[in-house]
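User: Quick sanity check before I run a bigger batch. Here is a single chain. Can you write out its predicted 3D structure?
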Amino acid sequence: MPKICHVIARLNVGGPAVHVIQMSHHLRREGLDVSVVKGMESATEGDLMEMASAWGVEPIVLRDLGREISPLGDLKTLWKLARLLRSMRPDLVHTHTAKAGTLGRIAARLAGVKAVVHTFHGHVLSGYFSKTKSAVILWIERILARSTTRVVTLTEIQRREIVGLGIGGDRVVTLPLGMDLTPYENLDERRGRLRLELAAGDRFLVGLVARLVPIKRVEDFIEAAQLVTLRTESMRFLIVGDGELRVALERKAHGLGLGEDQLSFLGFRDDLETIYADLDLLVLCSANEGSPVAIMEAMASGVPVVATAVGGVPDLVADGETGVLVPAGDPHALAEAIRELHAAPELRRRLAAAGRERIVATHGLDRVVPQYATFYRELITAEAGA
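Assistant: Done. Predicted structure follows.
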């Protein structure tokens, strides 16, 4: 039975962790022996350990594999990870996220693993760090790609960007983010619960589901909410998620005169199906993204989407067909798109139906798991014979 080891910095709330957990479970059903190695999550970002346990995934924890950079600690972690992989003897190591991608790929080669794969879940080379730090990361990624059997991007747009930056060349392939969409496909029995909880009545509910971190540009959502509520009282804005910026964002909302009845911070929720069941519109206003899970969940739930045209988003949201795209960093354009969709119920229905059809056809686990299983098997076979 082929042995696969995923290495990820942390199983925090977000797309990479959901993908690794759910794919690990289903790939075992495809006859693969799959294990997961992870670091520790920070106190502000939440973790998905309960989800991992529910899916039968019990990760091996290397505490210092987490996101924070510590030269001495990272060297120790590299040594520990190399020893662990040497004892596990996987046929293929698949790394995710920047730090785990660096330490994991080096450790895999030190351990003699023949097939090494890395996935770019987002685009850490733009929007996350300073220009200097981004340049250093780009240099590192170019070097690492030379010893990476395959570099995976989640969308064709990402693939072109990565290759254009001199990373990987013909080693770069596109495989979609896969996740279990079935919980979002029939939400009738959940409808009304969120509205009752918030005493929202029949108001138009506009939601953002995200970690509250700089790359998500939640401040643009708050400014758009203020612009919209200046003209109408029929909408209510909801922020679902938590993170390092929560206090600052709450302060910003208060400073703009947005009360709880206009904009609510709901924190982390483990009942996202209940959220999507009552949302009239989902907004994503990030500065960069790979394949945002929130968009996929909303589309599967039949919720229309307004999103920024960044990263891999346009591969999910075809403007005017499966959603509406706006420029990043433009709260006025965001507010205008929200107002236009609020006033066009038939357009919302059409976008929602097309979005649901598209996402289920391309990102459901029944479509994606066989692609990855074939990809792993072919790569392991090819490297074994090399």
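The mean pLDDT is 95.

User: Great, the batch can go ahead then.
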